[in-house]
Amino acid sequence: MNWIGLREARTALFETGGLATPSARPGDLDALMARGALMVDCAILPSLTEQTLLFYAAKTPWDTALSIALSPEGVVILRHRVGRSQRTYRLNTGVKERAVSVTIVFNWDAPTRQASLSAEFPDTGALAYRVLNAPLPPTLRDARRIMMDRRQCYLAPGVRFAAIATDQVPVGPLPSLDGQTQVITQTGLRSIQSLRPGDLVQTATGGMAQVRWTGAVTLPARARFRPLRVKAPFYGALRDIDCAACQQIRFHHSAVDYLFDTRTVVARAGDLLEGLTPRLQPDQVLETYWHVLLDRPVPMQIHGVACESLNARDLLADPVLRSLSVLRDMPTELFPQDAGPAPLRLKHYEVRSLCESRAA
Question: How far apart are CA 147 and CA 11, in angstroms?
């Protein structure tokens, strides 16, 4: 993916050629962005009124306004106006009360007159999305102002970051492992980025599983996508494991059964209490993550830790979501068979209880 802008509370970056390859020659700022994505990651609090997460307004080169808001009923509202043309899109997420984190993504493809609006809640794994029609593409100048001009574009205090790309962000599960991460295969240790469909990898539940897909996505190295290192020997790791904060790790021991009345749970790496080291390098903006889809939804055995493979459960039952996801080009016949309900996904405070019980 080609990300051209990133904005945080104290950082504002924009490069027309892409943040990964800055260029001394600026592009035509009045050119339309025919395709692209706007991502807003934020923490939201309960409110009795509509919360504006982002608001942008400008008079040149056209009278333009763009806003993203969240209603008390849990509806994401995107309003976009260019001249006399106006669009209002609503996405009902079903999330109304508790303080939560959310990643909102607006994808547009003007040549096909298609767009999508999605909201993913990493605390619970819930995902809501809508396919939209006739989006209004912004200009590069609009994108630059949204990222760089704090007078013309407001971000709410709870917004962790906003980012703009010239490609569309896949909707649904995203890769979260470092490409150099090694797994046991039928031919020995291999890096994840070297795996190919048909290879066999060691699972944490015993036996081997067949690789059906591998792929990578470049994401802003912030919030739930921030790069971490799980240090050995914590959590049974034999070697350090590099991943995103959102990578799911499976736990299966007596404390799990005692605390949660179930045999197996998963927790995000970023919620673990100890054994974590930030991997974000000075001036690093982006990180490319890889992942693996297996022939069944089981975790991979990675250096002694049960790391979840790509979760495609929601994609199996929803062909529209599948067409928007990282697996959009994968033949349907290669999709894994559903193997029953997913393990319990722990919230951050439940992960704290689990870690404390393991340390006791």
Answer: 9
